[in-house]
Specification:
By secondary structure, the protein is α+β, with helices and mostly antiparallel strands. The chain has helices at residues 12-18, 38-50, 59-70, 107-110, 116-128, 145-163, 168-173, and strands at 77-83, 86-94, 101-102, 105-106, 134-141.
């Protein structure tokens, strides 16, 4: 009897691996030489040079705007400044800064004990560049001299920002637009102070 023969199956992947792949020869195209666009670049440079440069507004121009707004019909800029328990009613006028008054006294006389308070009160005008163009008349009450000077500065900042909003960013970055609301805590019944209890002895 004849023995049955087994069929051998060969996978396609095996045959593909055995037969080496023939690479197609690629023909390189000759490189095209492009001339640089000299004339166009020169034109662009000329346009950039001839274009007018926009200049940002100088602080001097901003000062002129602010004083022009305050000059309308002889009005003044008004605002209330506060720090801790000190409250300052501030009025800004056009004129030299040496005319500034606090509680019907000259600025130098009111803060004669500490000259640094004058710089604290007038700091917003200095930062805005309005120190030589404006002066202020203030009624202030409460707190000490330090708190009153800071309250005046807060009030001046508020008045300047109301008059011309362009100065708001400068004043806010220097912390003059925010109110310092810290105050002494009130005394509680049964305690010596706000939180200090009476001393207790066992014997």
């Amino acid at each position: 009897m004849a023995t049955p023969t087994k069929k051998t199956t060969v996978k396609k992947s095996e045959t593909a691996a055995k037969t080496p792949a023939v690479k197609k020869a690629t023909v390189k195209k000759p490189a095209v030489h492009k001339e640089p666009k000299v004339h166009e670049e020169v034109d662009k440079v000329e346009v950039l040079v001839d274009a007018p440069v926009e200049k940002a507004e100088s602080p001097v121009q901003a000062v002129v705007k602010a004083t022009a707004i305050l000059d309308l019909k002889g009005r003044y800029a008004y605002a209330v400044g506060r720090r801790k328990t000190a409250v300052a009613n501030v009025r800004l006028f056009n004129g030299a800064s040496n005319q500034s008054e606090v509680n019907k006294k000259k600025l130098a006389d009111y803060f004669s004990k500490n000259v640094s308070y004058i710089d604290t009160a007038s700091e917003p005008l200095r930062l805005a560049g309005l120190e030589k163009d404006l002066y202020y008349v203030v009624k202030v009450a409460g707190g000490g001299l330090n708190a009153q000077a800071a309250a005046i500065a807060h009030g001046i900042s508020q008045a300047i920002a109301k008059t011309d909003a362009d100065f708001r960013k400068v004043l806010k970055k220097n912390g003059l637009m925010t109110r310092d609301s810290r105050m002494k805590e009130r005394k509680k019944p049964g305690l010596k102070r706000a939180r200090r209890g009476p001393q207790w002895a066992k014997r």
